[in-house]
Amino acid sequence: MDPGTGLPRLRQALSTLSQLRLSDTDSKTCHGLILITLQANATLLRLAPEASEPLRWEISQRLGTALRPQDRLYALSPWEWLALLPNLPSPAAVSLAMIKVQRACQQPPLETTDSELGTQILCGAVIAPDHGTDPLHLIQSSRIATLHAHSQNDWCALYHQDMEQAPGRQATMNRELQDALAEDRLQLFLQPQVDIATGRCLHAEALLRWQREDGNWVSPEIIVSALERAGLRHSFNRWLFQHAALHLHELQEAGLDITLSVNLTAHDLLDPELPDLVAQALDTWRLPTEGLILEITENVAVSDAREVVAVLHRLRDMNVRLSIDDFGTGYAGMAYLQNLPVQEVKIDQRFILPLTLESKEREIASAVIQLAHKLDMEVVAEGVSTPEALECLLQMGCERAQGFLYSPALPLPEFMAWLRTPTMRADLEGQDSLT
User: Fold this and answer.
1) What's the pLDDT tens digit per position in 208-241?
2) Within this chain, do residues 403 and 372 fall inside the same structural domain, yes or no?
3) What's the pLDDT at 6?
4) Residue/partner pairs of 135-141 with CB below 8 Å, 24 or more apart
5) Domain range for residue 79?
6) In this predicted structure, what is the pLDDT of residue 24?
7) Which is nearest to 99 in space by CA: 327, 274, 331?
């Protein structure tokens, strides 16, 4: 045990991790690790031992209150802690846990006997088995994520293998991405959202795609991360909303009345100019604001940052519809959402894929649908891949479904062709349902 905090040390952390069956890829849950570091400054380095020990104790107590009862906390070094979050329903819960950790250490400010300490908490997270199954490797990866956050002047980061890319390779990809953005070589693919009761498709989600010069496709997460590192997020958002509006315009010109959803990140909602970018794009193509839905993840939605709440209300005042993406993967409850200007909830695919087999997932999906309806919200189910899951959702009263049962994400011309297939055309004219 660590003598100053009473917490177990690295050896116990490795032992506990080795007992979690990290390599069980069939499990419906995942495990999170968050490395928490108190960034050193002059005040911290000048602390006498008799002052540093009470401070370490207080930080440990605060971290403990930010975690769930089943989570474990370890002291790895004097100013470094490790939080183990076992059996999470989704990786999104790790992001929200980091937010809770930061708040716990910032409010009220940490103090010494003389003044506020003024230090910053850095968090680096990994998810098992996604990022590996070896306990020591996972802890090392969380340290790499913390180092990456510090290098990007950020306070937290989720590990990705690109963080270990050679600087030359990463710089090459960043330059290529900048050129792709400047030369309009990024793409938006559309994935249908189908009305379950009627089989009609009146909605779609716009998903980011980029194919590099070597022919390899890059995942949206890597694209967004690279854009943010390069300071291009604002320029990208301008591109994103203009192209989403252009797609809406072309759909309307083709006589296809489709509402389009676009994903936002936490950084987007901290940008006070975001509503202006949306308004400019819609004005350019003379589109009604009701044709656009902005999706925000649950952990961002429950943030009580004044800037985030202000941007959400400005968007809603413009009559832009707002949706909570990946709901059910974090710590929030539906009761919180009644205070937010949202009109739609998307149930994460983790609860949809085993819907016909697992009673727990059925209960969660049913509860979300019922509560959403009580708050006058529509519900979209993600990751629908079987007729059996669709039938369950229909019985529960879910409005829309999105997934491979209908179609993967498609380029705009192929999406239009999909809409015009005989089956879809019959449904658009109010005839037989796809379900």
Assistant:
1) 999 988 888 888 878 887 887 677 888 899 999 9
2) yes
3) 87
4) 135/13, 135/14, 135/17, 135/18, 135/22, 136/14, 138/17, 138/22, 138/33, 139/10, 139/13, 139/14, 139/33, 139/35, 139/76, 139/82
5) 10-164
6) 66
7) 331
Choose one of 137, 164, 191: the last residue of a domain.
164
Same domain membership, residue 158 and residue 203: no
User: Lowest-pLDDT range, 119-128, 177-186, 416-425?
Assistant: 416-425
Q: What is the CA radius of gyration of the chain?
A: 23
Has residue 154 been placed in a domain? yes
Closest CA to 81 of 95, 63, 99: 63
- Residue 125 · residue 34 · CB < 8 Å: yes
Q: What is the token pair recorded at 250?
A: 């072309």
User: How many domains are contained in the chain?
Assistant: 2
pLDDT for 279 equals 94
403 vs 382: CA distance, rounded Å: 6
Closest CA to 381 of 358, 355, 409: 355
In a domain, 136, yes or no: yes
- From residue 68, give the alpha-carbon distance in Å to each of 88, 194, 328: 11, 37, 16
Is 145 part of a structural domain of the chain?
yes
Neighbour tally for 406: CB within 10 Å: 19
Do 366 and 223 belong to one domain?
Answer: yes
Q: For residue 251, what is the domain's CATH number? A: 3.20.20.450
Residues 81 and 199 in one domain: no
Q: Which residues contact 166 (CB under 8 A, 6 or more apart)?
A: none
Q: What are the pLDDT digits (tens) for 5-60?
A: 889 998 889 888 888 877 665 566 789 999 999 877 766 766 767 677 788 888 88
Task: Answer whether 213's CB lies under 8 Å from 425's CB.
Answer: no
Q: Retrieve residue 318's tokens.
A: 């413009």
| Residue reference for tokens 């559309």 | 190
Residue 384 lies in a domain: yes
